[in-house]
DNA sequence: CCGCCTTCTCGTCGGCGTGAGGCTATCGGG
DNA sequence: CCCGATAGCCTCACGCCGACGAGAAGGCGG
């Protein structure tokens, strides 16, 4: 068999919404190269694993996501990154994976390296080409909110329409009219399933609680600003 | 550096529209495993290449696409495939790439193995997991026609609105009203640039010739049948 | 040469989804 | 007790799109 040999890793873009901000899970590297730089969590693919297996294993290991994450959350492949010089140790191909999680109580009880959720706006200068992978992951997440019901993956099992709207506003960095948003999501069949309970304790009228419905697609999609036509997409 | 080592290949899903049918470029394997089976064209990533370089090199090698393909065509990454048992020779990760080309005159003057465009409807039983990669590529192409101007990548440098509509109809396997389609594509800024010439010789009123415009996105998108909501996507 | 057919192109009409915004219900707090 | 804040319902106007009519402009057969 011809061809050079690669080490194959999986790097995770784990996104969540905290305090109305889109956050990403990062780990501080404890070894060279890029020692003490922030990096995306990840690891190498084992002998008997498929790529998705590795991604799921790393996700659980880094977040303890087995509890609620695996139920509500979402995990999908982003793309492959294999520039010849992306890793000084040799030829490494990294498969980026995108994970969307509800705001977990605290992601740091991992005994290993320092891990933290940081606002994506503040993140730059990651190790390797992880800035690129992160940018691709954020863009993928933004695009998918338009035509899927994936925003619910950022929410706990039960949530209000306002919770869901704040997810859109945080990811897109826009403001959405609460009344039109409510009409849109509640009138899409299978998006939201109302529960019998309401939330008390907040200000204002107590909102209805919903659960995720079986729908995965939004027809028609919910479009963000038609940012400008023509020219390169960036 | 931990982790097992992989051979890394690039496999191409090269799509074109011929005789109002979506076709895919296949090669007949001349060696084991899967000898004499049809497979996607592809090859291994070389030492100094990034993944896109390999894909572009293979595309030119297999189609001679340098002439018109590279100008009008389109090439993008599909995803990574690395199931542990996908290749009996050992651990191979394959990056799928999707290429959209105008109908090239004839793709067979390659001195190498037998190559042919075959209608995707008739294709099954490809080597390795290429059936899966092909299905993913076709689905990606179908989805992208909805919200991008990529359909023009299937057309020669100058084409009519009817040519473009036949691309949509072939890829989606639907029928589209010619009058509404014309209104949509001609009213989208930057999609089509009219030329001074018209086509003569055919039946009916001579149509206007257009060139691709700079627009890449369709806002709002052109939606195909809302195929059915809810449930898993595949 | 003259209908007739085909295809391209433009217009019309009605329904639906969405942005904008008014209004009521129902809470906490001063 | 009143007020501000939030949730939820409703109306209206506009634009896009599906359905479809009709004219424009060519080829073709009698």
UniProtKB/TrEMBL annotation, chains A, B:
The keyword DNA damage does not apply. Pfam families: NUDIX (PF00293), WHD_NrtR (PF21906). InterPro entries: NUDIX_hydrolase-like_dom_sf, NUDIX_hydrolase_dom, WH-like_DNA-bd_sf, WH_DNA-bd_sf, WHD_NrtR. GO terms for molecular function: hydrolase activity. It comes from the Bacteria. Coiled coil: none annotated. SUPFAM superfamilies: Nudix (SSF55811), Winged helix' DNA-binding domain (SSF46785). Keywords: Hydrolase. Residues 5-140 form the Nudix hydrolase domain. This is NUDIX hydrolase. It comes from Pseudonocardia halophobica. The lineage of its organism: Bacteria, Bacillati, Actinomycetota, Actinomycetes, Pseudonocardiales.
